[in-house]
Amino acid sequence: MKYFLSGLLAIGLSIAAMPALAADARNVTVVNETGYAIKFLGFNAPDDGLDEWDNELDKVLQNQASTYVEFDEDDEGCVWNIRVDWQNYDEAVLWKNVNLCKMTALRLRYDPGTKTTSFLAE
Fold first, then answer.
1. What's the rounded Cα separation, in Å, for the pair 97 and 80?
2. pTM (predicted TM-score)
3. Is 14 left (phi over 0), alpha (psi -120 to 50) or beta?
């Protein structure tokens, strides 16, 4: 029994010492705090141009809701463009060259006084 417990302890310590499979540094939670529903949320690399986008949303992202965006191993680099399209408006918002590796969350906010959308990186 003594050897069994020692063996379990050794296995436990070796597992704890193994590097954890970390999430991709670019994965980000997007929180909609704009007051408006979002129908499109896209990310693309700056070299892709501004015409190639994939919608990361399965459904409309309502105000106060959030979504988790995961990147694939095929995606390269930390710097990405981000595009948001509103559900009931034709206008879109575009942020260029955002370093996703420096954040884990984007809180989207709208200022009705200046009529601008911004994000708070966390």
1. 5
2. 0.79
3. alpha
Residue 43 CB neighbours (<10 A)? 20
Could you tell me which of 56, 58, 52 has the C-alpha nearest to residue 26?
Answer: 56
Domains and CATH numbers, the chain: 23-121 (2.60.40.2890)
For 46-96, how does the pLDDT look when each residue is reduced to its tens digit (9 = 90+)?
988 888 899 999 999 999 999 999 998 888 899 999 999 999 998 899 999
Residue 97's Cβ-count burial label (10 Å; 0-12, 13-18, 19+) is exposed
Lookup: tokens for 49: 């141009």
β strands within 5-65, DSSP E:
28-33, 38-44
Backbone angles phi, psi at 88, to 5 degrees: -110, 20
Written as six digits, the tokens of 75 are: 């995606």
